[in-house]
Please model this.
Amino acid sequence: MAGGTDHALHLTWREPVDDLGIREYRVYGSTSSGAQGTLLGTTRTPGFTHGPLRAGATWYHRVVAVDLSGRTTDLGQVSGRAGTPTRTDLNRDGRDDALAFTRGGAADVYASLSDGGKFAQDAWKWHDLFATDQEIALTGDFDGDGREDAVTFTRGSAADVYVSLSDGGRFVQQSWKWHDYFAAGDEIPAVGDFDGDGRDDVATFTRGTSADVYVALSTGTGFAGSRKWHDRFAQGEEIPAVGDFDGDGRDDVATFTRGTSADVYVSLSSGSVFRQDGWRWHDRFAQGGEIPAVGDFDGDGRDDVATFTRGTSADVYVSLSDGGRFVQDGWKWHDGFAGGDQVPGVGDFDGDGRADVIAFTRGDAADVYVATSDGDRFLPGPAKWHDHFAVGTEWPQPSQIS
Model:
C-alpha cells in the first residue's frame, strides 16, 4: 500500500516467502498506470519513501523482490497521491482555516473555514474551555485522520499537554491529557511529524546554554515518553522552527540566529534523532528582529523559509530549499504585507499545494489579510479574508505569534 503524507509517499508491502531469503527490493515509479516505470531506489526492508513530491501528484509504484540467487519476483503495483501540506485544515478539504484562542479565563476557541477566497464563518465557537490563562496553543493532526486538532501546553512546573480532536465541526474532548511532563518552564513547544508515520508529534526546545531538543511521538491517543533528539540546537535566544526541508516526509528542525549574524541552521530527522550539528543553510536571512516562518512556497515538496520585516517597510522575503540549503538571498516576494505589529503566519489557504501568507491585525479592527503564492511571489493586494476575527489580544493560528 502507499500512503500520502505532506511531501512524500510511504510504501509498505508484505515480505514474500523465499527459500533463499530476500537480498533487496527494487522500487520503480511512474506517473502513468501500467507503465514499467523508472528505478527509484533499492531497499533491504519491506518499505520505501518516495519524495519530495508536489502536492496532488499521483504515482504508480512497482516493487520487485530479488532473492540471494538473483531471482526476481514482481510483487505488483500500488498507487498513491501526495497530500496537500496543511497546518490548520480543520475539515479535511485541503485548505487551511483560521483559529482564534481567547485564552485567559474565557478560554474559548473560534474557527472560520476557508472557502478558497475568504474565511466564511463569524463567531463560530469550536470549544468553550481550552488553552486557559497563558497556555501555548498550537495545531496538528495528532490522530492522523487528515483533520488538524488543537493542543495546548501549560508549561511551567505542571508541564501538562492537552489535546482536543477535530470532528470537522468542533474540537470534541475536554481536559484530555496527552502528556504530564513536557515543555516545562519557559521551553518553546512545537508540532511536526518527526517520524513520518502520518501523525503529528510534539517537540520542545530548551534553548539557552543547554540547547536540548526533546520529542514525544504520537500514538494516536497520547504522546509517548520524551526522548532527547538533539543536545545542541537553538542556543541562547535563537528562534526554532519545524519543517520538512529535504522532502522525505519527516519533519526537521531549523533555527534562526537573527540579529546581525542572521544565520539559519538545519538538522534533518532520521525518524529517531535530528542528525546534523552546526549545518548552516543560509548566512544572511531574518536579520535584526524580523519574524521568520516556514512553508512550501513553490510547491515542490520541500519546505522553504520566509521572513517578515513588519513595521513601516512590511516586506516579505523568501529563500527556497534545494534539499541541502536555502538558495536565494534578498528575494522579495511582497513589499506591503504584515505591517506595523500585525501577526504574520503561513498556510495553504486556497489548497493549491503552495503555502500562502496571512496577517492578523487583531485589536479593534480584527481584520485578516491573505496573499496567495504563485510559486514566485505572493500576489499583490493583499485580499481581506475576514473583517472580525482574532480581536483584541486573542491568539490566532496559523501564526508566528510568540
Notes: The chain has a mean pLDDT of 94.
